[in-house]
Amino acid sequence: xxxxxxxxxxxxxxxxxxxxxxxxxxxxxxxxxxxxxxxxxxxxxxxxxxxxxxxxxxxxxxxxxxxxxxxxxxxxxxxxxxxxxxxxxxxxxxxxxxxxxxxxxxxxxxxxxxxxxxxxxxxxxxxxxxxxxxxxxxxxxxxxxxxxxxxxxxxxxxxxxxxxxxxxxxxxxxxxxxxxxxxxxxxxxxxxxxxxxxxxxxxxxxxxxxxxxxxxxxxxxxxxxxxxxxxxxxxxxxxxxxxxxxxxxxxxxxxxxxxxxxxxxxxxxxxxxxxxxxxxxxxxxxxxxxxxxxxxxxxxxxxxxxxxxxxxxxxxxxxxxxxxxxx
Amino acid sequence: xxxxxxxxxxxxxxxxxxxxxxxxxxxxxxxxxxxxxxxxxxxxxxxxxxxxxxxxxxxxxxxxxxxxxxxxxxxxxxxxxxxxxxxxxxxxxxxxxxxxxxxxxxxxxxxxxxxxxxxxxxxxxxxxxxxxxxxxxxxxxxxxxxxxxxxxxxxxxxxxxxxxxxxxxxxxxxxxxxxxxxxxxxxxxxxxxxxxxxxxxxxxxxxxxxxxxxxxxxxxxxxxxxxxxxxxxxxxxxxxxxxxxxxxxxxxxxxxxxxxxxxxxxxxxxxxxxxxxxxxxxxxxxxxxxxxxxxxxxxxxxxxxxxxxxxxxxxxxxxxxxxxxxxxxxxxxxxxxxxxxxxxxxxxxxxxxxxxxxxxxxxxxxxxxxxxxxxxxxxxxxxxxxxxxxxxxxxxxxxxxxxxxxxxxxxxxxxxxxxxxxxxxxxxxxxxxx
Lengths: 327, 434
Fold this sequence. Notes:
The structure holds 2 protein chains of 2 kinds.
Chain A: H1 6-23, H2 29-54, H3 62-80, H4 84-106, H5 111-124, E1 141-142, H6 158-181, H7 184-194, H8 196-201, H9 206-232, E2 234-235, H10 242-255, H11 262-284, H12 288-309
Antiparallel strand pairs in A: 1-2
Helix pairs in contact in A: 1-6, 2-6, 2-9, 2-10, 2-11, 3-4, 3-5, 3-9, 4-9, 6-9, 7-9, 10-11, 11-12
Chain B: H1 2-24, E1 39-46, H2 59-72, E2 80-87, H3 92-105, E3 110-112, H4 117-130, E4 134-137, E5 153-155, H5 160-174, E6 180-185, H6 188-200, E7 206-210, H7 218-231, E8 235-239, H8 242-254, E9 262-265, H9 272-279, E10 290-293, H10 304-316, H11 324-342, H12 349-359, E11 383-389, E12 395-397, E13 405-408, E14 417-420
Parallel strand pairs in B: 1-2, 1-3, 3-4, 4-5, 6-7, 6-8, 8-9, 9-10
Antiparallel strand pairs in B: 10-11, 11-12, 11-13, 13-14
Helix pairs in contact in B: 2-10, 2-11, 3-4, 5-6, 7-8, 8-9
């Protein structure tokens, strides 16, 4: 199968982005918010796909890496007064630094030990905010990015602006990741995932390749975290819970964990589930308790069904220009 | 190849259907959002699941019970009240998501009784930008009375700073010379309390912060007990949510400290029925604890508000035990009905806010404290009374049943004033005619 050149991929992605952004003018604010939420989830899930689907490492702690990105972005915007697009870059970088440090440890661990270590991170790291006053405790810190640029007109809602920002970020991330994965780095990671011993025998430096994958994956998670902070208007430990980390892994599994394009589908499914369950509950008239617990039930059932019947993810959503090329 | 092409077509078909569904779901606009000729739609966010849910999850049903009662008696100016309930699991991120739903999709007229300090903070940007009235928020964070930052928000409960000042005065009057430890939730809720205690000049032998929701972790509770014992405290002030009080009682029991430590509970964490549910047979261990309240005891059969609400609860709330949470829900709902009535026959968000500011201080409500709403103040209740928890988990006034001494003060530096409690009479049949 022949490769598309980076320029063609960019063109395609920009086209999709343009359609989405223009389309956002025809939906209400709630859809814009959900679209932004889906774009952020897609970025975060793609970081898991890069890590797990390509380099074969597992992380249950990406929610914590998102927290690192979010807090870094908020802190530098609040204290250094830099414009918020640069705060996202800082968040990306901070996520990368945390991921590099974690990656050094992670490269030595495998399977359940790696899962355990990253899980501990997801549980422990957000509560650090309670130890240092500058991090704002349970209450968290407000992240105000102000109003959309005035040139867009007064009708341009804040949520639509968030949608535009997150979609642009998602397109950049997908383009960069897709190009990266078709270079020798991508091939090394795939070799690593398939069989670390064989990869080492072929001259691939296993440790180095693993740390690099972890660092890049964490950069992406950090970016997702800072965008998440923008959407919520705050960072707080309760915003980056263990549930978030699990949600991301769930999204990656639903998407087919080695399928970059699938992360968009995974993200849309995650955003759609509460919506669907609300509609279902309204239709069948369940009690508040049923309504409150239904999204969790649906997610769990989907997850189990995916693992049982289509462990490599549903075949439907493969988009050729984003999908992994196979021989 | 063929298979792949077909599936690709499938994606496009799915995308088109999804896009069509998104566009179709946009609703036409009303004259005033959430108000029709026959209905008024309100919304509430509250933890129905998760560690903070016990107790609080009863509030929406109680609000709905009172609204159903009013609806059955003609509604508000001929309109039926509909309450949309959303679970936020006490997570600010989820609160924002479901509040988006309430305001942008369900298009509620106003939010009522939304619970939690950080949770209400997270939705402030949305609430302010849409100009949605946010009535009687279920938190005592004094900051919400700031009319510049929260122009449409009306706190009802006395602020935590007020409560801490009042408790400080009570401790000084009744527990002078005791070694008192403080456990508090480490967020604005607890910070507010620390401010109040510091104004009151209360000295603690130990100040023990805990992160919200961490009370579910036994090792955290273990640390509380260690700190209490290490400081040699004989009195412990618990300034947290009810599930934290439950965890503390369990910890004290395990450490064999029941009866050796006098507990003093804040109003947030002292609901008897919820504690009974959390603790089971261990519940009597809390008997003798002193609790601050601003509403009357739900077990006080001589109180006209309690008897009326109990009757409504029996008829409209499917056998729910009448406790503090039910009382809070009904009291909030009754104030809401008075606010909606005062907002006029064609209520708008602006007329609702104006009605509360100009007339809210005169409305009937179960608390013994006056309400201080005015065009220049969004401060609600300002006072507390103290009761002792009995074996049944209900508080009886320390002055004897039915007799209430009210301690009032503000969130700032005003002194604490003691007075005999008074309030407007319950409207006939519990149906406001304001």
